[in-house]
Amino acid sequence: MKKIVFFFIALLVTLTAAGQPDFSGSWKLNTGKSKLGEQFSMAPSSIIIKQQGNDFMVEKHSSFQDQEFTTNDKLTLDGKECINAGFMDSQKKSTAVWSDDKTSLKVISKIPMGDGGEITITEIYKMNGSNMVIESVSSSSFGDMSETMVYDKQ
Predict the structure, then answer these.
(1) How far is the CA of 44 from the CAs of 68, 89, 141, 149, in angstroms?
(2) pTM of the prediction?
(3) Is residue 14 one of the residues assigned to a domain?
(4) Measured between alpha carbons, how far is 91 from 117 in angstroms, rounded to an integer?
(5) Does 109 map to a domain?
(6) d(CA 112, CA 92)
(7) How many structural domains compose the chain?
(8) How far out from the chain centre does Cα 119 lie?
(9) What are 130-147's pLDDT values in tens digits?
(10) What is the SS3 string spanning 7-44?
(11) Per-residue pLDDT tens for 94-122?
(12) How far apart are the first and last CA of the chain?
Protein backbone atom coordinates (compact mmCIF):
# COMPACT_ATOMS: atom_id res chain seq x y z
CA MET A 1 0.00 0.00 0.00
CA LYS A 2 2.83 2.40 0.85
CA LYS A 3 4.32 1.82 -2.61
CA ILE A 4 1.06 2.80 -4.30
CA VAL A 5 0.72 5.98 -2.22
CA PHE A 6 4.37 6.88 -2.93
CA PHE A 7 3.82 6.24 -6.66
CA PHE A 8 0.81 8.58 -6.81
CA ILE A 9 2.63 11.30 -4.86
CA ALA A 10 5.62 11.03 -7.22
CA LEU A 11 3.29 11.12 -10.24
CA LEU A 12 1.49 14.21 -8.93
CA VAL A 13 4.80 16.03 -8.31
CA THR A 14 6.02 15.09 -11.80
CA LEU A 15 2.82 16.25 -13.50
CA THR A 16 2.81 19.52 -11.55
CA ALA A 17 6.43 20.29 -12.46
CA ALA A 18 6.05 19.18 -16.09
CA GLY A 19 4.20 22.34 -17.15
CA GLN A 20 6.64 24.69 -15.43
CA PRO A 21 9.74 25.29 -17.54
CA ASP A 22 13.23 25.42 -16.11
CA PHE A 23 15.08 28.28 -17.83
CA SER A 24 18.43 27.33 -16.29
CA GLY A 25 21.44 27.46 -18.57
CA SER A 26 23.50 29.68 -20.83
CA TRP A 27 21.60 31.34 -23.67
CA LYS A 28 22.79 33.25 -26.74
CA LEU A 29 20.64 35.76 -28.65
CA ASN A 30 19.46 34.53 -32.05
CA THR A 31 19.03 37.80 -33.95
CA GLY A 32 17.61 35.99 -36.99
CA LYS A 33 14.63 34.68 -35.02
CA SER A 34 14.19 37.77 -32.81
CA LYS A 35 12.11 40.89 -33.45
CA LEU A 36 14.30 43.69 -32.14
CA GLY A 37 13.91 47.47 -32.11
CA GLU A 38 14.84 49.07 -35.42
CA GLN A 39 16.84 51.98 -34.03
CA PHE A 40 17.78 50.65 -30.62
CA SER A 41 17.61 47.30 -28.86
CA MET A 42 17.84 46.45 -25.18
CA ALA A 43 18.34 42.74 -25.95
CA PRO A 44 21.25 41.16 -24.06
CA SER A 45 23.63 39.21 -26.31
CA SER A 46 23.73 36.39 -23.78
CA ILE A 47 21.95 35.38 -20.59
CA ILE A 48 22.86 32.93 -17.86
CA ILE A 49 19.97 31.73 -15.68
CA LYS A 50 20.10 29.69 -12.50
CA GLN A 51 16.64 28.54 -11.45
CA GLN A 52 16.37 26.45 -8.32
CA GLY A 53 13.35 26.09 -6.08
CA ASN A 54 12.00 29.59 -5.43
CA ASP A 55 15.18 31.33 -6.65
CA PHE A 56 15.62 32.79 -10.14
CA MET A 57 19.00 34.39 -10.84
CA VAL A 58 19.58 36.15 -14.16
CA GLU A 59 22.94 37.38 -15.45
CA LYS A 60 22.59 39.47 -18.63
CA HIS A 61 25.53 40.42 -20.86
CA SER A 62 24.88 43.48 -23.02
CA SER A 63 26.63 46.27 -24.85
CA PHE A 64 25.72 49.92 -25.30
CA GLN A 65 27.74 52.43 -27.31
CA ASP A 66 30.60 49.92 -27.64
CA GLN A 67 30.74 49.34 -23.87
CA GLU A 68 30.16 45.87 -22.44
CA PHE A 69 28.24 45.54 -19.19
CA THR A 70 26.70 42.82 -17.07
CA THR A 71 23.61 42.99 -14.87
CA ASN A 72 22.78 40.47 -12.15
CA ASP A 73 19.28 40.09 -10.75
CA LYS A 74 18.18 37.76 -8.00
CA LEU A 75 14.43 37.20 -7.96
CA THR A 76 12.04 34.92 -6.16
CA LEU A 77 9.29 33.06 -8.00
CA ASP A 78 6.57 33.80 -5.44
CA GLY A 79 5.60 37.32 -6.52
CA LYS A 80 7.46 39.06 -3.68
CA GLU A 81 9.26 42.29 -4.52
CA CYS A 82 13.02 41.92 -4.98
CA ILE A 83 15.47 44.82 -5.09
CA ASN A 84 18.54 44.73 -7.33
CA ALA A 85 20.94 47.31 -8.76
CA GLY A 86 19.41 49.52 -11.46
CA PHE A 87 20.90 52.18 -13.72
CA MET A 88 23.40 54.66 -12.28
CA ASP A 89 23.19 53.58 -8.63
CA SER A 90 19.40 53.32 -8.65
CA GLN A 91 17.38 50.43 -7.23
CA LYS A 92 15.38 48.18 -9.54
CA LYS A 93 12.29 46.72 -7.89
CA SER A 94 11.02 43.53 -9.53
CA THR A 95 8.40 40.85 -9.05
CA ALA A 96 8.24 37.48 -10.80
CA VAL A 97 5.08 35.37 -11.06
CA TRP A 98 4.14 32.25 -13.00
CA SER A 99 1.20 32.34 -15.39
CA ASP A 100 -1.89 30.43 -14.24
CA ASP A 101 -0.94 27.48 -16.47
CA LYS A 102 2.71 27.64 -15.25
CA THR A 103 4.11 27.79 -18.81
CA SER A 104 5.47 31.33 -18.67
CA LEU A 105 7.09 33.61 -16.12
CA LYS A 106 6.25 37.32 -15.96
CA VAL A 107 8.85 39.67 -14.49
CA ILE A 108 7.83 43.29 -13.91
CA SER A 109 10.62 45.72 -13.01
CA LYS A 110 10.43 49.41 -12.12
CA ILE A 111 13.54 51.58 -12.26
CA PRO A 112 13.56 55.25 -11.18
CA MET A 113 14.87 57.75 -13.73
CA GLY A 114 16.78 60.96 -13.09
CA ASP A 115 13.83 63.12 -14.17
CA GLY A 116 11.67 61.85 -11.32
CA GLY A 117 9.85 59.36 -13.54
CA GLU A 118 10.42 55.67 -13.89
CA ILE A 119 10.81 53.02 -16.53
CA THR A 120 8.63 49.94 -16.28
CA ILE A 121 9.87 46.79 -17.99
CA THR A 122 7.62 43.75 -18.36
CA GLU A 123 9.32 40.56 -19.54
CA ILE A 124 7.54 37.29 -20.24
CA TYR A 125 9.85 34.26 -20.31
CA LYS A 126 8.63 31.13 -22.09
CA MET A 127 9.94 28.18 -24.03
CA ASN A 128 9.30 27.59 -27.74
CA GLY A 129 10.73 24.18 -28.49
CA SER A 130 14.41 24.36 -27.51
CA ASN A 131 14.46 28.18 -27.64
CA MET A 132 13.85 30.54 -24.75
CA VAL A 133 11.70 33.50 -25.79
CA ILE A 134 11.49 36.76 -23.84
CA GLU A 135 8.73 39.17 -24.82
CA SER A 136 9.75 42.55 -23.44
CA VAL A 137 7.74 45.78 -23.21
CA SER A 138 9.19 48.92 -21.64
CA SER A 139 7.40 52.17 -20.88
CA SER A 140 8.79 55.51 -19.73
CA SER A 141 8.50 59.23 -20.38
CA PHE A 142 10.64 58.56 -23.50
CA GLY A 143 7.93 56.31 -24.94
CA ASP A 144 7.17 52.64 -25.29
CA MET A 145 9.25 49.87 -26.81
CA SER A 146 8.58 46.19 -27.41
CA GLU A 147 10.86 43.39 -28.53
CA THR A 148 10.70 39.63 -28.85
CA MET A 149 14.08 38.10 -28.06
CA VAL A 150 14.79 34.48 -29.01
CA TYR A 151 17.71 32.66 -27.37
CA ASP A 152 19.48 29.43 -28.28
CA LYS A 153 20.75 27.23 -25.45
CA GLN A 154 24.54 26.91 -25.37
Answers:
(1) 10, 20, 22, 9
(2) 0.85
(3) no
(4) 13
(5) yes
(6) 7
(7) 1
(8) 16
(9) 999 999 999 998 899 999
(10) HHHHHHHHHHHHCCCCCCEEEEECCCCCECCCCCCCCC
(11) 999 999 999 999 999 999 987 788 999 99
(12) 44
